[in-house]
Amino acid sequence: MKIAIIFGGSSYEHEISIVSAITIKNVVKKHTLEFIFVDSNREFYLIDAQDMKSKLFSSKEYLKKGKKLTLQKKGFFITGLFGNKKIEFDIALNLIHGRDGEDGKLASLFEFFDVKYIGPRIEASVISFNKLYTKLYAQSLGVKTIDYRLVDINDKRDFDLTYPVIIKPLRLGSSIGVSIVKSQDELDYALDVAFEFDEQVIIEPFINGIKEYNLAGCFTQEWCLSIIEEPQKEEFLDFEKKYLDFARDNRVSEVNIENSLKERIEECFKGIYGSLFMGAIIRCDFFVIDDEVYLNEINPIPGSLANYLFDDFDKVLEEVATNLPTQKNIKIDYLYINNIQKAKGKA
Amino acid sequence: MKIAIIFGGSSYEHEISIVSAITIKNVVKKHTLEFIFVDSNREFYLIDAQDMKSKLFSSKEYLKKGKKLTLQKKGFFITGLFGNKKIEFDIALNLIHGRDGEDGKLASLFEFFDVKYIGPRIEASVISFNKLYTKLYAQSLGVKTIDYRLVDINDKRDFDLTYPVIIKPLRLGSSIGVSIVKSQDELDYALDVAFEFDEQVIIEPFINGIKEYNLAGCFTQEWCLSIIEEPQKEEFLDFEKKYLDFARDNRVSEVNIENSLKERIEECFKGIYGSLFMGAIIRCDFFVIDDEVYLNEINPIPGSLANYLFDDFDKVLEEVATNLPTQKNIKIDYLYINNIQKAKGKA
Of B242, B241, B233, B219, nearest to B287 (Cα)? Predict the structure, then answer.
């Protein structure tokens, strides 16, 4: 299978997406890859696989070495003097983390221009990108989520909180803009930081030492679930550790938990995935509090697609690519306008 | 102001959008209009204002008379031998009802390609296009909605209902696929009809003679609200009446209700509009049951933009066009990758 990895984007997670794409290059063995970079200006560039090094982008060398593409009906094209040449691939893979990739834009572009793709569809993107909508969606399915308070940038900051709390921009991933606040006097600064990234933030109680479990997967003809991992947490990740987190390519070992808990986590995952996330490989992060499973967040495009959680990642890609949801074909026959014309005696 | 009306789309409401666009042509007096048609194949065509008649589209004459456009960075272009010519306008107006227009696709295209537009943003589209998400969103704001049952196409149909009920496809507007079901023996057929249009449907109690009130508006520097209308309802609208409904251009008279009810309806509207619908002129349809206000649905692109509810529709367009929400400018400085390079001794 030939897969076109779409990465970059006008996103706070632009650089992380580059790291993810390089990692995918290293872990995918059975498929051929093309790389299509979306630069900060939202222009598309075809990047040669052997040029896929982070410095190509940070040095802006991609402007010279990459080939500029346009997105048109059915795919990406190189425009030349003698017409357009189509970039051939079987399927695109949306690997843009954050804005553009996870907010529904890329899904919309691919559906409008009729490009087959692996990744969350428009609704799935919006529901998982916005932490409030994630909670409302989970609650509607009977999946528990952590209590929260939504704060707008224009709201008065006169609320009482029980500390510690965790403050998150409403619409970002990868811990960007997130702070743990231990007392009232740290609150203002943490809110200011979060409001740098979004006009709305969400405040949740921070539970020290909470048990966290990650599970990735997709539904194709059947459920294809990864192992469950208990991620190693440190209160603050420096840039190198964050880098390593998105560059993960070594399979991790499964957490040792009771079968009944494992099954409950898997049931929650399946409920959340539902029909909404068809076509995407997602990772859900769960908390367990007093033996109850809570959804923390949905990563519809997890770092390096959570390849390290799967036994045979190449096969997962193939399965999801061959079981994509399809757009309904809407036939437009102008029956309605023709009837009106007839009624008016004009047809 | 020069406004480009975008209409058509790959949507069950394609023809209705054409009717809407022709109506807008007739009611807008102070602004210059361009017309960009999205055909059923999702190709763009520039249509001369004087050609804006429904028969141009039903006869496929637009293929000859229209000029084919491509959407690229910053706008729509006519591609020619001597380069691309940009179609000049101050702002686009999304008038595609249903799929493509109201599901987040057009919003995504305009944001990605950096085209200024009037219409719902991506999140606003998804929340209002899906009747379940509309309810979850309204509930989270404390706005009441009608009880419902969500049914998937694969679900067993062994549920008990108290009749009459109303059955609606989860994601359509304009009453398409909607049935009122008076007894159990009509249920299967009505579900089959609705499942023709969507794989999920919503069932609500149907309350005969319920009071319905419509209110349109937007927030710019201040609230710009229309009068409240009590729509004339008939149980079944034939095609000509539906046509008339989207072609409305005569100002209607305000309903005669108590001030306190009017204020409560307006408060609900403002809550729903919030910051989510900034940039759009929306119409909310409310029910009043036992003196309580319920949200029925949000039309983020109402038929002919509900022009008939406003005193000075030209001014509303101008107000919303000059108070659009803006995309955050994300600066990508490669600080993170540069730091990694330094740490590795490569920079």
Answer: B233
CA distances to A38, B103, B108 from B127, rounded to whole Å, are 27, 9, 14
| Banded model confidence at residue A347, pLDDT cuts 50, 70, 90 | very low
Q: Is the pLDDT of residue B140 over 50?
A: yes
Between A344 and B61, residue with greater pLDDT: B61
Q: Which residue out of B110, B131, B330, B346 would a mutagenesis test of the A interface target, given it has the greatest number of A Cβ atoms within 10 Å?
A: B330
Q: Class assignment of domain A149-205?
A: alpha beta
Average of pLDDT values for B46-67?
Answer: 97
Q: How far is A328 from chain B (nearest CA, A)?
A: 8
- Chain A residue with CA closest to B60: the answer is A334
Q: Which residue of A has its CA nearest to B171?
A: A123
Please give the class, per CATH, of domain A126-144+209-321.
alpha beta
Q: How far apart (Å, rounded) are the C-alpha atoms in residues B291 and B261?
A: 8
A123 interaction partners in chain B (CB closer than 8 Å):
103-104, 126, 130, 133
C-alpha B347/C-alpha B337 separation (Å) is: 10
pLDDT tens-digit readout, B242-300:
667 777 877 788 999 999 999 999 999 999 999 999 999 999 999 999 999 999 999 99
pTM of the entire structure? 0.95
Interface residue A14 vs chain B (CB under 8 A): yes
The kind and range of the H/E element at B282 are: strand B282-289
| Inter-chain residue contact A10 with B330, CB threshold 8 Å | yes
Give domain limits for chain A.
2-118, 126-144+209-321, 149-205
| Three-class secondary structure of residue A293 per DSSP | strand
Mutate to test the interface with B, among A122, A202, A244, A273 (most CBs of B within 10 A): A122
Q: Which residue of A has its CA nearest to B154?
A: A275
**Interchain CB distance below 8 Å, B72 and A73:** no
Model ipTM? Answer: 0.94
For the domain made up of A2-118, the CATH class stated in words is: alpha beta
Residue A59 confidence class, pLDDT cut points 50, 70, 90: very high
CB atoms within 10 A of CB B149: 14
Interface touch A132/B114, C-beta < 8 Å: no
What's the token pair of residue B155?
A: 């679900």
